[in-house]
Amino acid sequence: MLDAAIKNEEPIIITGWTPHWMFSAYDLKILEDPKGTLGGSENINTLARKGLEEDMPNAFKILDRFHWEPEDMEAVMYDAQEVSFEEAALKWVEDNPEKVAEWVDGVEKVDGEQIELISTPWDTERASSNVMKVVLEKQGFKVTVTPVDPAIMFEAIASGEGDATVAPWLPTTHNAFFEKHAKDIVDLGENLTGTQNGFVVPVYMDIDSIEDLEPKE
Question: How far is CA 209 from CA 35, 200, 201, 212, 213, in A?
């Protein structure tokens, strides 16, 4: 419906969120939400199991440095509409050598060390986990990405069954799981900031805020 409306430059309002590939495909804007009706912005964090820094210092350093922007994630998600996430992630890594170089600068390569990244089956996390998989593999790691339910993701890191995750949305979406396991995990901080839920419109619409919407009679 969004695609059809934009092709005809018709007005349309949808619920949406960023990062999402539609922001790479179309010129869109999120309406201002002065009352916080749809919640505030969130971050996506990197978490690691206790002991990972000692066991795999090179992987830990890369994970700790990992940070990118919503438009980076959206680019991977957009390309993954046509190819696999693995291919889309590889393309992004090859297209962004300077950013990747910041993550791996001075990090020694390894020879087949195994590391397991725990993720969730959301396209946003398919994007980030596969990019990190590509980067780590280029450094010589053998990487497994395991997508699970968010509750299992936190349990896996806290118990040490998984090594790290770049998938948790904080401080709201996954906060209950984080609070439950905080003492048993290592929080490396945000790898992406500025996620947002809201009402989305094409940029050609002359409206900027939810408060500008007229109630239907």
Answer: 11, 10, 10, 5, 7
Strands 142-147 and 114-119: parallel
The pLDDT, as a whole number, for residue 216 is: 67
Residue 164 and residue 115 in contact, taking contact as beta carbons nearer than 8 Å? yes
Which candidate, 130, 125, 51, places its Cα nearest to that of 88? 130
pLDDT, tens digit (0-9, with 9 covering 90-100), for 20-76: 899 989 999 999 999 888 777 899 999 999 999 999 999 999 999 999 999 999 999
Distance of alpha carbon 10 from the chain centroid: 31
Phi and psi based region of residue 51 (left: phi greater than 0; alpha: psi -120 to 50; beta: remaining): left
Name the CA radius of gyration of the chain, rounded: 19
Ranges of the chain whose pLDDT falls below 70 = 216-217
- Cα separation, 192 vs 127, whole angstroms: 12
Domains of the chain: 2-38+198-212 (3.40.190.100), 42-195 (3.10.105.10)
pLDDT at 217: 65
